[in-house]
Specification:
Layout (H helix, E strand, L loop, with lengths): L2 H8 L3 H10 L4 H5 L5 H11 L11 H11 L12 H8 L6 E6 L2 E7 L4 E8 L8 H12 L4 E8 L11 E4 H15 L5 H18 L3 H13 L1 H11 L5 H10 L3 E6 L3 E6 L19 E8 L2 E8 L5 H13 L16 E9 L6 H12 L2 H16 L3
Parallel strand pairs: 3-4, 4-5
Antiparallel strand pairs: 1-2, 2-3, 6-7, 7-8, 8-9, 9-10
Helix pairs in contact: 2-10, 5-8, 8-9, 12-14, 13-15
Amino acid sequence: MQQLDIINFIVNNDKLELIKAKLNRFNPFKILKIEDYEIRHSNVLAWLLDPNGNHNFDEKILKKFLLKVLMKPDNDEVLSNINLVYKIQNMNFMDICVYREMYNIDLVMVSEIQRLVIFIENKILSEEHSNQLSRYYCVIQDNFPDYTIIPIFLTLDGKEASSENYFRASYSDLLETMEFIVENYKERTSQEIVAFVSYYISIIKEKYFMDEDLKRLCKDIYIQNKDVIDMIYSIGNEIDIEVAVNQFISKHKEIIPVTQKNTVFWFGLESFLKARKTEADSWGGGFPICLWFSEYYGKLKLTLEVGPFEDSDERITFLNELELSGIKISERAKEPGRKYTRIYTDTISIKDWSDSEEIYEKMETLYNKKDFISTKNKAIEAVDRTAW
């Protein structure tokens, strides 16, 4: 490929300029990176769906969204009584209280007058876990006996819930509702509110539902510049965690860096120093117990592992100390000839490996998890008790 091909692709490319213009439109949500955090979406939804919110749309967004969800063909089997639709249509929702994270549920809306509970589990990015939906439904049933309960599983594409009690809803349903209300009732509120909701609609569309004009433009550019784009992508998509690692090191003075490459960062702790060997170029930089962050099938992984010892008896002694501290060690790990014993590992998803700030935040998340801190402290106790 000629260098001229790359220059021609970048310089004075009208179609590329159009895409840049579309993507670089000012949007405060983009600056705050709200599109990347589920909890922030739930905060905005709590405000939009609150009939008493200062958006001045009253119950209109909540009621229209709710009716749209109930009437979806996908929900025919969940809607056991069509009369519920008519009841919702005629209900007054102005006494509804909206709660965030009640019983760990994203959104819970309660009307004492109507004896109604609507709750929404919002999964725009993550997956449900640990029989989550069934547990939430049971909790609401137990705490609101004799109430009408409407559980909604909200995902990007209206994914079916694992529990048959849930109505499925998509962000398309939500977008259509917001666009209709803003377009037809904007005179009820201020220009600032209209702008705020419009920005939110735009960021959802841009991030998850690319408009057709932009999609066609991208296809045209790719067809005409396939080789250049493929090369740029392959190079730009290489993972390098150096910036995030440096930020992490500066935050944690107890860390002793061992080695660092594009996708992995090994480190020890000051608390492990008494166990460190002089051979800094050996496994774990001379630490018999070491930690590392690494890229693992698109996720960020944190590992704490016991490495090889020169004396296998000393290794078994240390493993026994770890066990005494409360760390589970298998009997196979103590067999002669065993060199590596992993005592902790955890992963977390990374959406954009080119975003150093996201990588750093996820490092902090893994490093500050209660389970990890507990295991790390137990390992430190074992190191302190061992005669090195």
